[in-house]
Amino acid sequence: MLLQGKTAFITGASRGIGESIALAFAREGADIVVHYYAHKSDPEKNLRAEAETLAAKIRDMGRKAYLCGFDIGDREMVDAEIKKLLVEVTPNILINNAGITADNLAMRMKPEEWERVININLSGSFWVTQALMRPLMKNAGCIVNIASVIGQMGNIGQANYAASKAGLIGMTKSLARELASKKVRVNAIAPGFIETAMTHAMTDEARKGLMDIIPLKETGKPEDIANAALFLSSDMARYITGEVLKVNGGMYM
Ligand SMILES: NC(=O)c1ccc[n+]([C@@H]2O[C@H](COP(=O)([O-])OP(=O)(O)OC[C@H]3O[C@@H](n4cnc5c(N)ncnc54)[C@H](O)[C@@H]3O)[C@@H](O)[C@H]2O)c1
Question: Fewest Cβ atoms nearer than 10 Å: which of 47, 145, 158, 228?
């Protein structure tokens, strides 16, 4: 078991890549904090039901599962909910996975499309990291940020998303330097084209355009990202920090 005795906090864990990481980590012995989207004032919008289903699967595997809900773009909510959680449990792995897209050509991009993506993908990951930094430093923990191939190569209609993910890569390298003296390793994964709700929303034309530039000629699965996150979070990667691991079928080298 690669993560026996560890507790992993995974943002946006209730579906897609986050869910896959949660299940892979639990299989390797970790207890899991399942973070899900929760609206500040409207419980109707919460994704708690999905998170509870995942928590039940984790408990069936013999691990502990904790639930933690907040809107990652709302700094006050992030701080308040993580403070409550820390009374109960001390995570030693953080996976910043939650993210969104709001695509538009730069000429037409609305200020709210720009701000929402930067706020959730980049600032939100930083708020969560700050709120969990003390326990991670006390435990020689580790952080894995889920960036994107788009943050490395750019893409038409995704200036906001590319900027947020490139920012996340810069943040990863800075934190890797800053936290190394506390033995906290900080790495990123840059997934390519992975089959999840996020990519199912793409047009057939956009999908074909991407497939044309993937040398392995197939899309990735959430499990491909989970395997990379497992490696980076385990002692097998004990000497790796500040790295950006591409998991993209060769799409960008
Ligand atoms: N699917 C891909 O091809 C791909 C490629 C590169 C990177 N990524 C990245 O992987 C991560 C996971 O994406 P996915 O493909 O599983 O998509 P997804 O849409 O299935 O999952 C995104 C998760 O983030 C959560 N989330 C979104 N906004 C939130 C908010 N404001 N507060 C709290 N939680 C919020 C969602 O509830 C969901 O659980 C994202 O950061 C995404 O940018 C995905």
Answer: 47
Whether the Cβ atoms of residue 141 and residue 93 lie closer than 8 Å to each other: yes
Best residue for ligand 1 mutational test, from 15, 17, 68, 153 (most atoms within 8 Å of Cβ) = 17
Distance between CA 17 and CA 196 in Å, rounded? Answer: 7
Q: Map out the domains of the chain with their CATH numbers.
A: 7-244 (3.40.50.720)
Ligand 1 centroid to 12 CA: how many Å? 6
Cβ contacts of residue 4 below 8 Å, gap of 6+? 28, 29, 30
Residue range 10-47, pLDDT digits in tens: 999 999 999 999 999 999 999 999 999 999 988 888 89
Reported as a single tens digit per residue, the pLDDT across 163-199 is: 999 999 999 999 999 999 999 999 999 999 999 988 8
Does residue 7 contact residue 93 with C-beta atoms inside 8 Å? yes
Which of 14, 19, 35, 37 for a ligand 1 pocket mutation test, highest count of atoms within 8 Å of Cβ?
A: 37
Q: Which atom of ligand 1 is nearest to the CA of 220?
A: 3
Model pLDDT for residues 102-154, shown as the tens digit of each residue: 999 999 999 999 999 999 999 999 999 999 999 999 998 999 999 999 999 99
CA of 158 to the centre of ligand 1 (A): 15
Q: Which atom of ligand 1 is nearest to the CA of 222?
A: 16
pTM value? Answer: 0.98
Give me the residues paired with residue 185 across strands. Answer: 142
| Closest alpha carbon to 144 in 205, 232, 221, 69 | 232
CA of 180 from ligand 1 middle (Å) equals: 27
168: amino acid identity, one letter: L
